[in-house]
Specification:
2 strands; 86 residues; mainly alpha; elongated
Length: 86
């Protein structure tokens, strides 16, 4: 594994991998991009639903804390999500 400078990821290479999988226009990149977009869409829907305070009784402290916790998690995970999308 070779660490990629400034990134939490490491690169590795395999001799048994098909040659076209190592190209940027190979078959692996579109599959990866599609997977990352789907994951980010699911994350945004779940985060939005958890942070949405419509239809929630804000006088109930447990529901209010769940909204605050959802917003906090979005702030904590947003940098990692942006790095993944980049």
């Amino acid at each position: 594994m070779v660490p990629v400078r400034g990134s939490p990821y490491s690169a590795s290479f395999s001799a048994s991998t098909k040659a076209d999988a190592n190209h940027l226009n190979g078959p692996i990149l579109p599959k990866y991009v599609t997977k990352v977009i789907e994951q980010s869409q699911v994350w945004m829907k779940e985060s939005s639903a958890a942070a949405n305070n419509k239809d929630k009784d804000l006088t109930d402290i447990k529901q209010l804390l769940s909204v605050v916790d959802a917003v906090k998690q979005v702030h904590e995970q947003s940098d990692n999500m942006m790095l993944t999308l980049d």
